[in-house]
Amino acid sequence: MSSTEQRVAIVTGAARGIGAATAVRLAAEGHAVAVLDLDEVACAATVATITGQGGTALAVGCDVSDSGQVETAVARVTEQLGAPVVLVNNAGVLRDNLLFKMSDDDWDTVMNVHLRGAFLMSRACQKHMVDAGFGRIVNLSSSSALGNRGQVNYAAAKAGMQGFTKTLAKELGKFGITANAVAPGFIATDMTAATAERVGMGFEDFKAAAATQIPVARTGEPDDIANAVAFFADEKTGFVSGQVLYVAGGPLN
Ligand code: NAP
What is the best residue among 35, 138, 189 to mutate for testing ligand 1's pocket, by most ligand atoms within 8 Å of CB? Predict the structure, then answer.
């Protein structure tokens, strides 16, 4: 691939939150971006932001936990934008509960979206990266990977994302493909707003309380994570692989 050719990136869960900010950021850096989410219509706002800034984007509806839908989506991206060589596995859900109250469905849903989703998307995209001799896979982990009360499913999935990332780095490195993980702390999105609602707090109060525990004295914004993803997606970071970068406003214990 020549360096002047526009690279194609897929960002999953890009209708809103961190995924939307990441899609916009990668487009601003010159990628053609597939904005992939469960509901294709919901991707329109992110696509409009990108095209409004002169970029190229395609809305793609796909459930990342469904292998048939993933194969179809990646084939469509390849046909309509070009072969994807950057993949950001960002799609995510929460089904928080204490262990004794957690249902089988709560466990399976979280595993399926985060881990199975990242596996299916990475498997479908790697062949294009191998063909290109270039690839960047960035997986969204979380500070919850270190353990978080009420999130036994999510913590296990996000710790799993780290092992998945390191293994991809080992298997795919010789093909010019890097794999890294970004592990956010508290980022203000619909996901954390839903957590505030669940615990019966207003979002501003919830954020203020969280900020008291964060060394930089504020909660994160989606762009804070988009920045870190963009670093790993960059052509120039080809010697950085298998890393987990905590982006949490300070060190975590
Ligand atoms: P968000 O605002 O809830 O956005 C997640 C997006 O993923 C939604 O658009 C959602 O679609 C989509 N999605 C869910 N299931 C999907 C599936 N099966 N297939 C395709 N798309 C699916 O979440 P966020 O806060 O931006 O989080 C993005 C990522 O960062 C997640 O992996 C999350 O675990 C991780 N993270 C977030 C934080 C934080 O503080 N916000 C911290 C650490 C890690 P619907 O709206 O249709 O459900």
Answer: 189
Ligand 1 centre to CA of 71 (Å) is 21
What are the C-alpha distances in Å from 170 to residues 87, 123, 132, 251?
A: 17, 15, 18, 26
* DSSP H/E element including 85: strand 84-89
C-alpha–C-alpha distance, residues 103 and 108, integer Å: 9
Q: How far apart are CA 162 and CA 213, in angstroms?
A: 24
H helix or E strand, kind and range, residue 12: strand 8-12
Residue 61 phi, psi dihedral angles, 5° rounding: -85, 130
Q: Cα separation of 35 and 24, whole Å?
A: 9
Q: Phi/psi zone of residue 57: left (φ > 0), alpha (ψ -120 to 50 degrees), beta?
A: beta
Beta-carbon contacts of 43 under 8 Å, excluding residues fewer than 6 positions away, are: 14, 15, 35, 36, 37, 59, 60, 61
Average pLDDT per 10 consecutive residues for the chain, totaling 253 residues: 76 98 98 98 98 98 98 98 98 97 98 98 98 98 98 98 99 98 98 95 97 98 98 98 98 87
Which residues does ligand 1 sit against, CB inside 6 Å?
A: 12-13, 15-19, 37-39, 63-65, 90-93, 113, 117, 140, 142, 184, 186-187, 189-192
Question: Tokens standing for 242?
Answer: 């298998």
Q: What is the CA radius of gyration of the chain?
A: 17
Which residues participate in catalysis according to the annotation?
Answer: 154
Report yes or no on whether pTM surpasses 0.85. Answer: yes
